[in-house]
């Protein structure tokens, strides 16, 4: 179990508790599908430089919250701020460039691009990626720099030997690693991972967690959705639990795991009565 | 007896002729949209129409032919924007539905009575390309090898056509080898992933649709110049599907696929026709088939050939089998 992050030490474990240095602040955020409030978050702050796990039963609204925050879905009400700047109405590709990068529950690899190209395409290259630049040239310097960085990133995720293979030929676990490497090539400030360990074997899960911790130690903020409580206990600095669209508990993992509201959410409110 | 040499000569003539060059150009544009970007543009004929009519009307109104070609291309870019703005944010199939409709709408508009003052209705516009033929440097004569010869007029059109096909291919090469092209291919693979990496997917798809459309318009103008004629009913949806066949035969998302595909397409098309006609004349079909049955049968055989190609080379002539076998998990 990781030690409690010093920056979060002593905070009361209550939903919506203010953090000393929040990078992301969500306020009054609502997204409904018909009559169902998929997301209904009154207030939530994410502390800079920490690993925050987002847990909750299926259908709790975790992925929808991710989608709204990253601009892939539209909120109906509410606001959220990155480093104090309001993000409402900004399209998803601009949110990514502003430093908020997300991955997907079902890995989306760019199958018929090579592994290296997958990493390169994520790098920012305003000149070469514009039509003008593509026609007139003059983008090779930046391209060379990006390639060096992409190869370093692949080495870090032990994918460098696969650089020239099609991403579609990677194993499921390698795709997860590539997706993370790709997200990092965007140079995010906050990385939002949607179930990075789903369907990944235990050894690779450990490797992924090691990478996530290392990112945190380098100063990155990581928010991730996770179902495996062992994983959550192992690496979270802070845990946020959602149910029916709302944040029902937050705090250090030990505290949240014992919270009766969380236990109820996972096992059903009347679990005590059915126990024989 | 069948004259196989003559059949081959005619087939090769078709494979390197004006329609083959025109479809090569057209398919280069469609390949950028469909092969590289994954856009299902089922109205490519509409871009060809706009290119041809833009040019013909400009000349008809007293403008210069070359300005006319530019007008046609500019109109195609505009058409790309008009189609793209409402559809490119939606799922891929919506673009397919809208483009096939737009292609037909354009044909019906240019043949309609209210557009007739400009388009001359069903009769179309003729003799607008004299400026092109005045530039022909070839003296009177027949150019080629052995029996395979073109007169100076056709030879001039053929040369310009293949030069244009190579030119637009080199343009696409320059684009696709740049970081811009990498984003385009990433969009073909996974739009949302590309978005999540900070790329404005809508803008890229729009650019691809416009550039591909402009190249289609160039092909349309080229074909019209050769015929010295534009008339609405030459622009039927079948042209789009010919262009798709060319792209798929050559290998979608390959650089020289459209050019090779067009050559193969027009070779086979003529070859089957010649063989069938020859066989008919030699009495091979007895009383079973008459002269009017040859046309449909040729299409059927062509379809079988296409299926055979897809079975043995599913990625087209130039496509890589390895790439084809990647499953999209």
Characterization of this structure:
The complex is a heterodimer of chains A (276) and B (329). By secondary structure, chain A is α/β, with parallel strands linked by helices. Chain A is 36% helix and 22% strand. Chain A is built from eleven helices and ten strands. In chain A, the strands form two sheets. Chain A has a six-stranded mixed β-sheet, sandwiched between helices. Chain A has a four-stranded antiparallel β-sheet with strand order 2-1-4-5, covered by helices on one side. The two termini of chain A are 32 Å apart. Chain B has one domain: ABC transporter involved in vitamin B12 uptake, BtuC (Orthogonal Bundle). Chain B is mainly α and 329 residues long. Chains A and B meet through helix 2, helix 3, helix 4 and helix 6 of A and helix 9 and helix 10 of B.
List the helices and strands and how they pair.
The complex is a heterodimer of chains A (276) and B (329).
Chain A: E1 22-33, E2 36-47, E3 51-55, H1 62-69, E4 77-82, E5 85-86, H2 92-97, E6 100-102, H3 115-122, H4 131-136, H5 140-156, H6 172-185, E7 190-194, H7 202-217, E8 221-225, H8 229-235, E9 238-243, E10 246-251, H9 253-258, H10 260-267, H11 271-274
Helix pairs in contact in A: 3-5, 3-6, 5-6
Chain B: H1 4-15, H2 18-36, H3 44-60, H4 65-87, H5 92-111, H6 116-119, E1 125-126, H7 130-134, E2 142-145, E3 148-151, H8 152-176, H9 179-189, H10 191-196, H11 201-227, E4 229-230, H12 238-250, H13 257-281, H14 294-312, H15 321-324
Helix pairs in contact in B: 1-13, 2-8, 2-11, 2-12, 2-13, 3-4, 3-5, 3-11, 4-11, 9-11, 12-13, 13-14
